[in-house]
Amino acid sequence: MSSQTSVNLSTIKQTLSPLSLGTLCKSLAISGLKQYPSSTPIITNSPTNVSHIVFGMVGSMNTWKYKKPYIEAWWRPHITWGYLFLDVAPTPEFQTLPSTSTPFCVNENINKLKVYPKIVRPVQVQMVRTIMETFRQGDEDVRWYVMADDETVLFVDNLVEVLAKYNHSIYYYIGSNSECVESNFDFSFEMAFGGAEYALSNPLVQALATKLDNCVERYLFVTIPNMAMKQILLYMVFHHKLSLVGICDYRLIYTMTCMSRLLSTHPQSPFLSLHHIDTINPIFPTMNCSESINHFMKAAKVDQSRLLQQTICYHRPSNWSFSMSWGYSAYIYQNILPRSSLWRPLETFRPPPHAFFLDSIEYYTQQNQIVTTYIRRSVHGLPACSFTGNHSADAITKIQIGGRDCCDILYTTSKNVTEVKYRPCGKDEVIA
C-alpha cells in the first residue's frame, strides 16, 4: 500500500457527460442539464459526522417491495442522505411514497455505451456505474460515499466512527474482505466486498467519475461488481498515477445460512453492517428475517458502540463460563473454558451451550444504566458432568445484563434468573 500522500485536487480534470434524459430521480425536479460538483471539495477540520456521508444503494424494482423493510430499519429520515438506484422506473404504488422514504433514482441506460453488445453482464456494469451516478447528484460538502445493496442493514453511528479516523481529502478505498476463503482467493485479499458496503473518499469518487466508463470498456469480461471496482481502481493507480490507500477496517457480516454463531462471537470492534439477509436463517428464533432485523435494531438504537461486543466471565461455584454478545445473545457453558476458546465461533461438533437471545432492553434514568434481558428459546437437553463438580444450568430461563467491561455473576440456586453485573475492570485484573 502506498503512503498517505496528499494530492493537488485542482489538477484532476473532469470530462463528465450529462445525465441521460431517461434518468428519473424522485428527489429532484430535473429540467435541462444538471451541474456537477466542483473538482475541489470543501476541506474543513471539523469532525466527520453523518451529514458528510452520501449512501448509494443498488436495488431492483422486482424485489424492492421485499427489500424495502431492510433499508427502513436503519434509514433516518432527514438525517441520513443518499439514493436508492433502481433498474427501471418505479411502479405507480412507489411513486407516491412519503418524504421520509429513501430518495430513489433510476439507473442510466447503458445501451448508449459503444461496447454494450460486448458486455458479459450488463447488470453488473450498471451496479458499478451507480458510484458515478450517485456522485452526479451534485450533493455538497460530501466527504465519503458509501455503496451498498438494498438488502444491507447499516449501523450508521459505528460507520461514522470508523470513517472519522481517516483523512477524507485523499484517495481512500475502505472495506472488508469476505468471510469466504474461496472468494478472497479468487478475487484477491485486497478487494472489498461491496454488497456489504465499502466507502470511497470524495476525491477518489471524483477521479473515478471521469474515467469509469473508459474502464468499463477495458473490463468487459468481469462478471462481479466488486471485482470490477477493484480492477478499475488498479487501472487508475497504474495508468493515471493515482496514489490509493486501501484499508480493510470494516467489521461486517457477509455470509450464508446460519449467522447466529458469528454474531455471538463478534470481536470488540465496531459492527457496521449485515448483508444477504434473505439468504440466511433469521437471526432470532421464532421470528422471520424482517422481524429479526427490527428486533435487533432495538439494541442498535440505544447504543451502537456496544452492539455485539463480546464479554466473557465465569461463575466459579457452578463451574460455568458465560459469553455475552451485547444486544444479541448470552451463552452459558456448563464447564470452565479458556477465553481463547470462547472467542471462536461455536463449531458443529462442540458441546452446545445454553443459548439465550435478546428479549428486551431498558434504560433506567436514576441509575444511568442500560439493562438488557435475554431469554431461553429452547431446551438444552444435555446433562452437566456432575462428577467434575459442574452444575446444570437448565433451571435458568432468563439472564439480565447491566453495565459494561468486566463482570460479576449473581446467581442463587433458588432463582431461575441470573444477573450479570458489568463494572469497570480493576487495576491489573486478570479474567481467566
From TrEMBL:
A Pfam short name = DUF604
* Identification of the protein by name: Uncharacterized protein
